[in-house]
Every structure is written in C-alpha cells, then in structure tokens.
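Translate structure to sequence.
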C-alpha cells in the first residue's frame, strides 16, 4: 500500500499529493482528483492481496516452542558451561595471584553443573588435591544416577 502526503480538502480529496507507491514503482505527483480515486482503488486491491498473503502465511506457519525436556537439557548444558568457565577463571586467577573465587561458591556451582566443573578440574588440574573438592565427583555420580533414573 502506498503512503500519501499532501493536503486534504473538506470533501476528503487529496490535492497536490506525492504518493509513494513502493521502491519498485517510485513515486509520482498527482494533481487531478480522478487519478487519486483510481489510485485509492489500486491501493485497496493491493492491500487486500497483501492481507491475503499474510493470512495464508500465518495459517501455514507454525511456531514451535521448546518442550520442557528440551528446555531442561539446554538449561542443564548452560549450567555446566558456566561451571566450567567459573573453575577455569579461578585457575586463571590462581596463576596471576589475583583475588580468587571462594571455595564455597565453587562447590555450589559444581553441585549444579558437575560435568563442567569436573571437566575443568581435570583439564586445568585445578583443586584436584583439596579434600573438600572430592565432593565434585560425588556430585557427578549423583547427577548421572538422577539422569539414568529420569530416562527410564
């Protein structure tokens, strides 16, 4: 549908208008009122065609949301990635003698994302000798058992 700009009279006719039809058709200046009424009928038919096309597209296009299990898997993967990054960041801080991430926070993150935490512990050789961090493989075992139970 085109866009109209100009002045309207009290009868609703558009005088001295620049009507922008579209990028492919350009624009033209219309002075006689007869051309404007013709243009209005063309715009209406074009509008109706566009509306039908949009309605058909809407009827044929289906939007699917993630199911609960898919959402849970994505969320669980993100938690494990975050755990991996938190442990890797703490190892980087340890090498640079910077302020470290508290051990309780590392354990909390490992409780929710044990796969990422344990992988980071093995790859970066970080916190593998501390007795407190022997809990991470236990968290991993608990999660594996829970996943097996849920998949049955």
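Result:
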């Amino acid at each position: 549908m085109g866009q109209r700009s100009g002045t309207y009279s009290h009868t609703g006719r558009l005088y001295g208008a620049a009507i922008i039809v579209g990028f492919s058709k350009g624009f033209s200046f219309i002075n006689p009122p007869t051309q404007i009424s013709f243009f209005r009928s063309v715009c209406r038919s074009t509008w109706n065609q566009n509306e039908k096309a949009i309605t058909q597209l809407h009827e044929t296009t289906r939007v699917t949301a993630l199911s609960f299990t898919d959402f849970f898997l994505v969320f669980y993967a993100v938690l494990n990635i975050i755990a991996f990054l938190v442990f890797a960041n703490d190892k980087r801080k340890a090498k640079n003698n910077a302020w470290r991430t508290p051990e309780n926070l590392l354990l909390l993150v490992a409780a929710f994302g044990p796969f990422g935490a344990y992988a980071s512990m093995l790859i970066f050789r970080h916190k593998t000798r501390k007795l407190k961090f022997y809990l991470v493989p236990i968290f991993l075992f608990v999660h594996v058992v829970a996943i097996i139970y849920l998949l049955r």
